[in-house]
Amino acid sequence: MRFFLVTACSLSCTLAIGQVNKSPKTTKPSTHTALLATTQPQTYGAPVTPAGAVPVQQLQTVLAGRDSARVKLVGPIADVCRAEGCWMTMQPAPGQMMRVRFKDHAFFVPKDISGKTAVIEGVVVHETVSVAQQRHYAEDAGKSKQEIAAITTPVEQYNFIADGVRVQ
Description:
Strand content: 35-45%
Distance between the termini: 70 Å
Largest sheet: 5 strands, mixed, barrel
Order of helices and strands: HHEEHEEEEHHE
Low-confidence stretches: 1-37
Shape: globular
Helix content: 25-40%
Strand order of the largest sheet: 3-4-5-7-6
């Protein structure tokens, strides 16, 4: 009986050690896998898909003379708030900027996404931006004191209130 207990105990220990060696090994993902993970689209705010998005350069056509509209646009990100990522800009036409803010300040975007492509969905409004607001945006963008002081007149521009942003 004693021999049986010692044999059973030895067998149990051997099986337990074998299971430890067969446990799944964690491996570092390959560079290719890591690259794919970082190039996947990221969504901020409400879910946004690229289906039905109109190029930002066609904004005038989409508005068709209206001052505001609910739209889904796609295009390159020109600039991002360097303070918090609380706004970004896109260029609907040469020499024209459209500021994209986020509905109810409910989300922000990364500060390093300038030059990437974004799909934005929400409401675009043509409005006058005051000198004080322009200076605030210039500070957020990291402009010099001279550049900020040079802002002396209100400007007409498109502002976009995004429900969601998809960065590709």
